[in-house]
Amino acid sequence: MALSELLAVLAPPSHPRETGGAPWPEVERRLSTALPTDYKRFIETYGTGRIADFLVVLNPFTANRHIDLIDHALHDPEGMSLLKDEHPGHYRFDRFPVAGGILPFAITDNGDTFYWKTSPSPDRWPVLVYESRGPDHDLFDGPMTTVLAALLSGAVRSRIFPSGFPGPAPSFVPA
């Protein structure tokens, strides 16, 4: 299971916040798509918080609209649709809910955004990391928690992130 890889490098909080209980069918109905199993397990295990004092996984159960998965999915606060319209040669991916479109699931302090490249099989969605206000991106093949574990352990690097990320001992701090 992909979550076990993340648990090996990032201890979950003893008292996670905004884990949502069990309303996943309602979230998926509102989004008109199923979500990856490892993402749901992540939210249930970690809840809302900051990873390595740098990134936040969007949560459909949070009271904070700035980190609400549903708000980001349905309203495009990072402006990806506008960037694609203005610079189609640099931004080749359509935005969810277009079939095969990208769906945001995490953001960084620098404004970078993690997206899933959607398909009919949510547990097989690859991860894209787009730089803030630019077309550079990294594509990672693997579930969200496997990609996070690889980034946090240093097994893979993203050219989008600062050289000091994730630091020597990344942690999760509930917010």
TrEMBL record:
Gene3D superfamilies tied to this protein: SMI1/KNR4-like
SUPFAM superfamilies (UniProt xref): SMI1/KNR4-like
Pfam families reported in the protein's UniProt record: SUKH_6
Family matches, as InterPro entries: Knr4/Smi1-like_sf
Domain of life: Bacteria
Protein name: SMI1/KNR4 family protein
